[in-house]
Design brief:
The complex is a heterodimer of chains A (about 130) and B (about 850). Chain A is mainly alpha-helical and about 130 residues long. Chain A contains five helices and no strands. In chain A, α1 runs antiparallel to α2, α1 packs across α3 and α3 runs antiparallel to α5. Chain B is built from 24 helices and 34 strands. Chain B has a ten-stranded mixed sheet, covered by helices on one side. In chain B, strands 6, 7, 27, 30, 31, 32 and 33 form a seven-stranded antiparallel sheet that branches. Chain B has a six-stranded mixed sheet with strand order 16-17-18-20-13-24. The relative contact order of chain B is 0.14. The chains are: A mainly alpha (about 130), B alpha+beta (about 850).
Chain lengths: ~130, ~850
């Protein structure tokens, strides 16, 4: 549980730290999340879920923050363009979902990589007595 | 197998990133990259500008500045720039234009350069083809070369562009304007050609209406007999030319030679050409607004309650968001200039400085003529001219289309002009002929640099000199200064024409109809300190026939606003800013008032039913002013439209394929109905004999059901019937919410307050300046300083503008601006 929470928090902080540095492309945070998946040896479900929640929360939080400071001027216009609706709150969830899914998958990719690397290490390891 | 299983998420993640970062093109529409768009750090959320002014930042590159620059932003977000030299000034102006309006600038130059389809896909191909075929790229390249003759001023333009580019270079993907994200393309660096293309687009907007005028009237003239044509499309004189009647003119320095064969009215035929199968109608897609127009006037001290000259100007243009104007103060070493310009064009176009104020309206002189070219064959390589086969030059233009192979346009260039219209590219009137366009828009010029001298002019002589080489679009420049002088110059590159030259499409087979010479600037219509103490213009004809050069077809000019302005300025004294505000937003419609005189005199009231009389009686006490909830205004408008339509519809049957003929002129018709009702009450080409009374009755009875149904849905009030929508440049269907809808608004296209809701057109900038010991002024435009739909400064002026209110202008020196309480924030570099 603690490991799950740590992964979640780390995903949140890491995605924020990378995303806020906007010189990098918007998807750069997936590289950071990839390493969370790589080093946190959680099961597949928890790996996905913790990182999904971490990135989603981060993106949700930042969307709400930007929107609140903007007095919803843009979010209302965007929700009308994209969904023909005034329910601008939905946009927070769409942003969160896109970030979250990508985060979750990136973490699973990291976990994949970790397994490939261990298998490779196992293969590379030659017991001493066989020498 | 196992390997694939263990790396499945790596593959999936990569695919997912690619899919979310890919701009798909579906049915020709470029879609945004979803991941990018929705990332709160990079996408549209980062365009949600903080409403907190402390978060607003400007970063000029000090390496590109020679001396310190200060920028103060007032509560309207108008920048007041204080520089110590012109290089720094224009650099800063360029930077700020880009900072506030980059996407709009990019879009407008894409229109002019025929490069919309590069980013919008095939749906904008027709617009691109039009501007390519009109030779905009050629004209821009020629003007570019022309700038080399004035290297010092060109340097200032280059500094302006450096400022734009420094801003563009400073952007990362999160900072791109919203529209770039929605349409998924990147801003590209600016260059002089882009500025020139934008300037050409403005010239197009203000002069290309002449094309349909000329072709439409050629059609009308050809179908009707000469007698009928002259009866219905006759000479129009309403009494108030720009230069008042009786003003003496010097004899002309050149008298154009009228062609000996005198085939003016039968100059050429456009109709009798077999239609080809594969026809593209070019010009229908993007017609310039026929209502383009403007008002300006100035009064001397003796007509002002504060004993100072007052200058007013309201240019009427298409109302869009982001707004076409950007407002700013430019200051170099305490020389202050204030006003508006188009973002993309440096300097101040309309405004005032420490000594003088100026404004402009469109002259609408005939600077565009068409010639029918006889090509040997469809390759357009050789054409007959003066009984010889002459080689044409073929210009090749490549239009890149997003998601589709490029398209190549070939345009023949003849000595009579570019052959923009061919059997394959038709205008609705061009009838499948090869038509060459002779247009001063194609004459190389450096008019783009004129702003600089105009902004620095200190008196009438300097002002006149600064616009002496201004070519297109021809304008009526109004002038006032702090010494109380006023003046008006119609300036542009105008053709010395013989009577009637270029009213219709001409034969291009010899030089009988070609342009012979241009009118020297000093012979352009102008007036300085007239004895009646005011000058004004409202797109009417420049002068009466005593002016030694032919001014063009008299029926193509506006008339109603000119009468209203002249009468108001003649009959009143003691003007001040408040009174000028009332005049500038006056919604009295002279056409409606003349129409009222006609129906009050001729309407057979005893033949109306009670229900019809109810509506009619509303008109009786109406003051012909288009007020917000005015019901009589709506009735009058619908009635006039229907009455006028009756005349124009009767020409349809006479034309080929039931094509509508060019409308007869409303002013001419009204005038004839007033003076000559018996002769003009009978509809053209009808078998029965009509009278004005009968036409009034019929046209009124026909609109009753329409009025009833409007009444039922509570839309009989003027503004409810005719709501105004100011759309985003991308249009109401694509991005409706980026526009602004429906304001309770007064006004009418024929009134001084020339708001035309149906075409989203009207006063795009209202300015009133009192040139006293202390310069005072008010101004407003329907929009906001920011081009970002996510900014509260995007459309914040509209409500105030719609209620006919203004903002006071802040015009302070570098020493006093800091203590002005309306300054929001400041930057020092």
């Amino acid at each position: 549980m603690l490991k799950f929470l740590t992964a979640f928090l780390l995903a949140f902080i890491l995605s924020f730290a990378i995303c806020i540095y906007t010189l990098f492309p918007w998807w750069s945070f997936t590289i950071g999340i990839f390493f969370i998946g790589y080093y946190f040896n959680l099961n597949a479900f928890l790996t996905f879920f913790s990182n999904f929640m971490g990135v989603a929360a981060c993106w949700f939080f930042w969307a709400v923050y930007k929107d609140y400071n903007n007095n919803h001027i843009l979010s209302i216009k965007m929700s009308q363009i994209l969904m023909h609706s005034n329910r601008y709150e939905i946009l927070y969830f769409i942003s969160a979902l896109i970030g979250g899914i990508l985060g979750g998958f990136a973490a699973l990719a990291g976990k994949n990589m970790q397994r490939i690397m261990t298998e490779k290490r196992k293969k590379d390891y030659i017991p001493l007595d066989e020498l | 197998m196992n390997k694939i299983k263990t790396s499945v998420f790596i593959i999936l993640t990569v695919i997912l990133i690619f899919a979310l970062d890919y701009g798909f093109i579906i049915q020709g529409n470029a879609l945004p990259r979803l991941g990018y768009l929705f990332s709160p750090f990079h996408g549209f959320w980062s365009n949600a500008e903080s409403a907190d002014i402390n978060k607003f930042k400007i970063k000029l590159d000090k390496d590109n500045l020679e001396a310190p620059v200060d920028i103060y932003f007032d509560t309207k977000m108008v920048p007041h720039i204080y520089a110590q030299n012109y290089n720094d000034l224009y650099y800063t102006q360029g930077y700020l234009h880009a900072k506030f309006r980059l996407w709009q600038m990019d879009f407008m130059t894409r229109v002019g350069g025929g490069r919309l389809s590069e980013v919008m896909g095939e749906k904008t191909l027709q617009i691109d083809q039009l501007f390519r075929r009109l030779g905009f790229n050629m004209a821009a390249e020629n003007n570019l070369k022309e700038l080399d003759t004035e290297p010092k001023k060109k340097q200032l333009l280059e500094n302006y562009i450096l400022g734009i580019n420094d801003y563009i270079k400073s952007l990362n993907t999160s900072e791109y304007p919203l529209e770039f994200k929605l349409l998924n393309y990147k801003p590209e660096l600016w260059d002089i050609k882009k500025t020139l293309l934008f300037h050409l687009y403005i010239s197009y907007d203000l002069t290309s209406g002449l094309l349909n005028d000329e072709l439409g009237l050629t059609n009308a003239k050809e179908i009707l007999s000469e007698a009928i044509y002259n009866k219905w499309y006759g000479y129009f004189d309403f009494g108030f030319p720009v230069i008042p009647k009786g003003t003496p003119f010097a004899p002309p320095s050149f008298i154009p030679q009228t062609p000996s064969n005198q085939q003016v009215l039968n100059s050429t035929s456009l109709n009798k050409q077999a239609q080809q199968n594969k026809v593209q109608y070019l010009n229908d897609y993007l017609n310039p607004n026929p209502n383009n127009g403007s008002n300006n006037w100035a009064v001397t001290r003796s007509k002002s309650s504060n004993k100072s000259a007052i200058l007013c100007n309201d240019p009427h243009l298409a109302l869009k968001l982001p707004a076409i104007w950007f407002e700013q103060q430019l200051t170099v070493n305490n020389w202050k200039v204030y006003g508006v310009t188009f973002p993309g064009i440096p300097g101040i176009l309309i405004g005032f400085n420490d000594s003088i104020a100026w404004g402009s309206t469109n002259a609408y002189r005939d600077v565009l003529d068409t010639y029918k070219i006889n090509f040997k064959d469809s390759t357009q390589k050789e054409y007959k001219f003066n009984n010889k086969w002459v080689q044409s030059e073929i210009i090749t233009e490549t239009i890149h289309i997003r998601g589709k192979p490029s398209k190549i346009e070939k345009i023949a260039k003849t000595n009579l002009g570019l052959v923009s219209f061919t059997p394959n590219y038709q205008n609705k009137y061009s009838g499948g002929h090869y038509l060459a366009l002779r247009w001063t828009l194609h004459t190389p010029n450096s008019s783009i640099l004129d702003n600089h001298n105009m902004n620095n002019a200190q008196n009438f002589t300097e002002f006149k000199k600064s616009i002496n080489d201004f070519t297109i679009p021809g304008q009526n420049f109004v002038y006032a200064d702090r010494q109380g002088n006023i003046g008006l110059i119609q300036q542009g590159l105008f053709v010395a024409k013989w009577q009637g030259q270029g009213d219709f499409t001409s034969e291009g087979q010899d030089d009988n109809y070609t342009w012979q010479k241009m009118i020297p600037s000093n012979e352009n219509p102008q007036i300085y300190n007239p004895e009646y103490d005011y000058v004004s213009s409202a797109n009417q004809i420049a002068a009466d026939p005593s002016y030694p050069y032919y001014l063009g077809n008299s029926t193509l000019f506006s008339w109603t606003r000119a009468i209203a302005i002249n009468k108001a300025l003649q009959n009143n004294k003691n003007f001040d800013i408040i009174k000028m505000m009332q005049l500038q937003t006056n919604s009295y419609n002279i056409l409606a008032s003349e129409f009222k005189n006609i129906y009050l005199k001729n309407m057979p009231i005893n033949e109306l039913k009670t229900h019809e009389l109810d509506y009619f009686s509303l008109l009786k006490n109406w003051d012909c002013t288009y007020k917000i909830n005015d019901i009589a205004a709506t009735i009058s408008e619908i009635w006039w439209d229907n009455f006028y339509k009756k005349y124009n519809d009767h020409f349809i049957a006479q034309s080929q394929n039931n094509k509508k003929l060019y409308d007869i002129y409303d002013g001419f018709l009204i005038q004839q109905l007033k003076n000559n009702p018996d002769n003009y009450g009978d509809l053209p080409f009808s078998t029965e004999k009509e009278t004005v009374a009968l036409l009034l009755k019929l046209s009124f009875q026909e609109i009753i059901p329409n009025l009833d149904s409007l009444k039922k849905v509570n839309k009989l009030g003027w503004f409810q019937y005719n709501p105004l929508e100011i759309a985003h440049l991308l249009g109401t269907t694509a991005v409706p919410s980026l526009g602004k809808k429906i304001y309770p608004i007064s006004g009418n296209g024929y009134a001084i307050n020339s708001i035309k809701p149906a075409s989203s057109h009207g006063p795009s900038w209202r300015m009133i300046i009192e040139m006293g010991p202390k310069i005072k002024g008010v101004a407003i435009y329907p929009g906001g300083q920011s081009g970002n739909p996510g900014s509260k400064y995007y459309d914040n002026f509209i409500q105030t503008w719609a209620s006919n209110s203004y903002f006071w202008i802040i015009f302070e020196t570098a020493e006093t601006i800091g203590s002005n309480k309306n300054i929001l924030t400041q930057f020092h570099f």
